[in-house]
Amino acid sequence: MHSAREAYATHLARVRRLSPATVRAYASDLRDLAGTLPEGTTLEDVDLEHLREWLWRATQRGDARSTLARRTASARGFFAWAHEEGLIPADPSLRLVAPKRGRTLPKVATADSVNDVLSGLAAHAASGDPIALRDHALLELLYAAGIRVSELCGLDVDDVDRSRRTVRVLGKGSKERVVPFGLPAERALDAYLVRARPALSARADTRPDDAARALFLGARGGRLTPRAVYGVVSRTLGPALGSATVGPHTLRHSAATHLLDGGADLRTVQELLGHASLGTTQIYTHVSAERLAATYRLAHPRA
Question: Which residues are the active-site residues?
């Protein structure tokens, strides 16, 4: 089963062109499945009851419904592929049912709270500290463009068109899109590129090509990692929202919601965010509707 899992991971990456993070998630699910099978179970031995037992154990652990749904998709995709490749005579996952996903609205910051945080970062960046200049620029860009943290960390200097105020990002499924950003983000990026990036680059012991191209650098001169970005966002935006679980996606959710609140149409927001399905973008209409209802209840005399 191990060799089949490895071959399937290669198929996901090279044929289906899924992102490395998605491939790792599916591979992790399949390793977890293999760990629950009785010793000596081969790929052909796996049946529907084995799969149901695996999901039941995950339920007992308290896995979220979204995680269970992904695990179901991982199993169904793997066994469908194995059947098509002739590795198994029948697909045991055909009757495996995924639990319904619960709809949870994303955490969204108000426009005022985001502005306050960005103003504070701008004041700190005025000191000229390279890390402060970098942090200001990356938060401005995360909010202005609504990009994912993986897309931010994957940016190269050449991906930014400063004359047109656009950035070229590589999204999920290796799909490329061009996203605009505003004047505040442009100013923050200019200050970072001129006054901070050269200083951070000089800290590197060696200069690999990847770090030489990278837009955002870490404290030691290498390409900035998603984990480091999570830390920056959590430290700066978390206190404003009173939450310790705030991350880069909160800025993405906030940007999408504020665009819709400001009158942008759903298709435009879908294109900006790089969503493959309009249904994914529609979650933000629920956020806006709930805000509208809450404001109405507070403001209307006959609410």
Answer: 148, 172, 249, 252, 275, 284
